[in-house]
Amino acid sequence: MKKSLRCALACFYIFCTLLSVAQPSDVLLGKIRQLAYQDSARLVSVYQDLHTHPELGFMEKRTAEIVSEELKQLGYQVFTGIGKTGVVGILKNGDGPTVMFRADMDALPVKETTGLSYASTATVKLADGNEVPTMHACGHDAHTTWLLGIAKLMKTLQQDWKGTLVLVAQPAEEPIMGARAMREDPAFIKNVPLPDYLLAMHTGPFPTGMVFNVPGTRMAGTDQLDVTFRGIGGHGSSPQSAKDPIIMASEAILQYQTIISRSNDPQTPAVLTVGSVQAGQDNNVIPAEALVKINFRWFKPETRKMLYDGVSRIDSGIAVSNGLPMGLYPIMKRKGYSFPVVNDSALVSKVNTTLQRVVKKGSLISSGIPAAMGSEDFHHLVLDNKKSVYDFIFIGTAPMDKVIAARKEGKQAPFSNHNGNYMVDLAGIPWGVQIGTDALLGVLKTK
């Protein structure tokens, strides 16, 4: 046999050996399922407690305490107060890759309408004094519960894998600020090892038991911004003596949509949403200011620039048309932002190689799903690293009976994210723990 051929065969043998080592055995996968479902009652109790006690972004003190205490009891090295309320748990377990798993903790200012026995009735007072209803309308309570379940399984199975596991309980995903707040925190930079891989999962209103893990661009980039229209206040009976910011805001809101309909290429996805308008207190008082809260969604940087330029141009034009001096021109404040989520193809393939062995045939979707206009910020935990390899997985958590009923009514899903009717199937709690643990062991070194 020629030397070159022997070398090629030897390399192939080594590759196959490494591949087999990287994949957990059937025995280990069976053990993961058994342990996840044995812990089901406790996990569901944790989930229901978190659901009943939602906390908004950067306010997740109670949730963070639950996470940190659980991780400490399991023997993780724990860092708290990262990015204000974030928690990091680290389990070093020998020579192998470093894998980070992130769960977000924050809820939304939405009134719950599910009618569940453990439904949230919580309210939160905001910095501006307004009190708003609060609920987990996007499944972050399930994500946090999954993280705690995974933490326990990975500790229990410590003899079956090698590497470093970094668990991140992140604040403030909804305002798209929490991941960067953690990544830029000196305590994170000093104490948290850079991961070879980053994984995260999200609930979805499709049947429990289904998993979507697709390579490439999966979610849009986003920007949150506030525009404050300033005018001159006055008596409602004397508009000629005032400069009405409510009128200016109203004109702007309508004109903003022409950016999408007339400035944007119709074949290039873009969304501009005004989610809040706040102005005045009384019927007969023209206020001095009106606040408009705006959200962008985009995939291309040039689209993002076009949206910002369009809003700025419209704001300035309205100021001119209302005869405002430069000192009263609208003020734009940029807040949270995130770049599009682009799943690493090799990592998706690696994870799916494991998941296809545990997910029912036909229920692991790895292609054919278009990118969503929704957004995420988890990948900002690693985007500034030299190595930025990540995978964002969607886990079905809708009860099948509700899915069937919705489809009979012609609906695609029984409920939707960010709506008061959003719910998570309790059977999806141990299921998510199983899938998350499977995914982690698919990229860590297993025995």
From TrEMBL:
Presence of keyword Transferase: no
Q: How is the cofactor bound?
A: The Mn(2+) ion enhances activity.
- Does the record bear Manganese in its keywords? yes
Cofactor(s) needed, names only, are:
Mn(2+)
Protein name according to UniProt: Amidohydrolase
Annotated keywords: Hydrolase, Manganese, Metal-binding, Signal
The record's section on SUPFAM superfamilies has: Bacterial exopeptidase dimerisation domain, Zn-dependent exopeptidases
